[in-house]
Each structure stands twice: as structure tokens, then as C-alpha cells.
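Per reviewer request, we include the raw input and output of the structure prediction for the construct analysed in the revised manuscript.
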Amino acid sequence: MVDVDSIFEQRKKEIEFYYSILIEMDKDNKTIINTIDNPLLFKIMKSNFILMLYNMVEATVITGMIEIFNQVKSENCAYSAVIDEIKNVWRDYKVKQIYNNQSSELKTYTNRVKSIVEDITSDKPLVLVRDMMAINGNLNAQKIKKLCDEYRIRYRVSDEKEYLEQVRKKRNALAHGDESFSNCSRDLTILDLEEIKDTVVNFLKGIIKGMTNYCDKKLYLLSVD
């Protein structure tokens, strides 16, 4: 899991650096940044910090899953060789593609079903794609766990105060223009941000560990318990 480790560490380094600036801003240290309205800038920077946290969450989860997909593909894993969870994801995705097809011609459906059957019976290597994750900017602890469960990826994580959900909601409020940057995170203290940051980082570490174990032990294969 080289890619996900690299992405996670890069994003974490950026966040820690940015947080160190926020600490100095909170001390009203004008030698760090001095504008005509530092309190306003501080509010905006706190909201941007939330965006950086969500960026790390989504980048880490997507990169980790794609690494798993690529490993399954590189090993030419056929439908018959993988665990039921992956069979279900692949099959449901293929069926959904038929369902979403706007054509009403019977031939369109029969040809697609024929293709699915041939892929299964001929032991053609499976191709898992990003669209199967259906993330769409809404990752929180519950959805990340659900995604991992769908592939039988085991993990040990905790988010008792639902900080990842708070990050998700604030990120969406900013992304959709429902709240301004100066307003969205203004009530969060520097200690609040630290606790949210540490929870998100530790949660992702647990997910990465589970993904790494999944790949290293090839737990996507039917023959592995």
C-alpha cells in the first residue's frame, strides 16, 4: 500500500504545518501574518482547515481502495476466485449499469446480461473501478466503515464524538455555498481543531492498517480465511 501511505503522510504534513500557523494566529502573533483584519482571516483559515481535513479523508480512502482494486486486477482474479463480498459489489455494479441504461430495447439488456454471464463462466479477470465506491463527497466514519465492510476489510477505529461527520457537514456547507468561510467554523477553538485533527488522523491510520493487512494477506481471495 505504497500510494495510500504516501498520500496520507503528505496530506498530514500539510495539515500539521497549517495547524502550526493557526496556533500562532490564535496567540495574536502578528509576526506570522498581519492583515487589516486578522480575526476575520483566522475564521476563514479555520474553515479552510476543515476542507484540508476532508481532503485528507477522501484522498486516503479512495487511494487505498484503488490500490486494492489494482492488486486484484494485477493478479487476474476471476469471479470464482474472490470472496462473496467482492462478487456482490461487482455483480451489483454490473446490474446497475443495465438498470440505468436509458435504452428500452430488449436487445440492450440481453446483450449486457450475456456479457456478465460470460465474464463469470469464462473466469475472465475482474475489473473493479472507482465508480463502485459511490463516494460523492460524503465520507464520514459510518460510510467509510460501510465501504470497508462491503469488501470485508477489517479495521479498528473510533470516532465517538462523530468528528468525521462534523468535518463532512462543514465541508459540504462550504462546497455548496450554504455557509461563508468566515462563519462556518468561527465557533471552533484551536483546541477543538486539534481534537478533530487527531481523531481524523488516528481514524485514517486504522483504516490504512486494515487495508494494508487486506492486501498483504490477500484477504480478497476465496481461499484465504
